[in-house]
Amino acid sequence: MEISNVFRTYNISPTMSASIIPLKEAESRGLLLDLEEPLELASKIAGYDALFSTGLSKDYLDKREFNLFISIRELLQNALDEEERINGRPDVRIEQDTHGTWIVDSGRGITVEALRIGGSDKECWMRGYYGEGLKLAASYLTLNQVPVYLFTGQMVFRFIALPRDGQNPGIFILLGSSKEAIKGTKILLSGYKADQGFMEKIVRFWNKDLTTKLIVEERFSSEDCPREMPSAIFDFPNQLYIRNMYAGEMSEVSRRKSLFSYDLWWFRFDVSRKLMTQKMPQLFLEIAKLLERSGVARRKFAEKLIEAGMLKKKAVGGGLAIEFNPSFTVVEGHLFVYAFPKGMLDAFAGALGLETERDLIRRVSTNEEAESAVSRGFIPILLPYELSEQFSSIPPLQNCSLT
Fold first, then answer.
1. 0.85 exceeded by pTM
2. Residue 27 to residue 33: CA distance in whole angstroms
C-alpha cells in the first residue's frame, strides 16, 4: 500500500509521516518482519500495510522499570477511562479463550495518533494522565514474550520489537485491517492466561476482600478538577488504591503499614508510578480530606486508634486525662503530623465515651499541665510536639477557666 493510502486508510496526519513505513519499504531499511500469525488468530486479521515507529526502545523500557503488574494495570485503567467517559461507568470486561486474555471496552476506540508517546486527550479526572501508559505497557509485554494486539474499528495494531535478536530493539506497531468491526477496543494479550485473583485485585471494585468492608465513599472535586469523583476507606488493613487502581500494600508503597485500606482519587503517583518521598505529605492530606467529609469515618478512625493503643484515657492527679501518642510508623498515626481533620476531636471524645464532656477538653504538653487541668475541672489531652499546628484548634489550658 502506498504511503498516501496508508495515511488515508488509518486516518494518520501528515505530521506523523516520518514515523510511518510502508511494509514494502521495511526490508530495504533493514527491518526484517515475521508476519506469520498463530493459526487461530490469522482468521481475524486481513493483513498488514505499514509499520509505525514508536521511538521507544528496550533500554528506555528498562529505565522505566515496568513489570507485568504495572503493565496490565495501565491497560486496564485506559479501558476503564474509556468506558466511564462514554458510558458513565467503568464497566470493562476481561475474557479468556484459546487466544489468551482480552481486555474489552466499548469506548471510542484507539487511533494511530493516540499511539504516539505523549499523545493523550485524557481529562483531569481520569485514571491515566501521562499519555504513555498503554504504549509502555504493550511494549513491555511484547519484549517479554506476550504479543499484544489492539483490535479497534476495522483495524488491528500489533506491537513488535525489531530487530528481534538485537541488544536494544526498538518498538514498532504493525498497522493492519481486521476481518470484523469492533466497537470500542479489544486488547489481546496473546498466549497469556491471567490469574483471576491477580486481575480482581488490580481494580478496587473487583476486589472481593473489600466488597463488604466499605466504611465510607465520598465524591468530591479537587482544586484542579471540577468533576466529583469517589474516594473511599475500608475496614481492611494495608491496601492502597489510587483512582480505583491497586498501588500496592501500604507498608511497601509508603514504608508504613496502615490499619485501613484506601482508594484515593485526588492523589497521583509521579511518572515513575511510585510514591516518592516528596509525595508523602499529599497522601496524608488526601486521607484527611476524606475524613473531614464523613463523621462515620472519623469515628471508626478514632476507634481504630484506641485499638492500636495510640489514643487512650489515663488517670492523672485523681482525675481523668486523654493521652494521644500516635505511632509515626503507621499511616493513621503519621497523618496527624500533617493534619488534624475537622471534627476529629468530637470523634475522639465519642470513641472514648466522653461526648458530654467534650467541651472540657484542653490541650496540654506535660504531666504537670495535665495535673493542673484536672485540678481546675478540665480534661487534659496530652499531645506530643511533633503534631500538626492544626491541633491548636483544641483550646489550650492557659487562661482557661470553668464558667
1. yes
2. 8
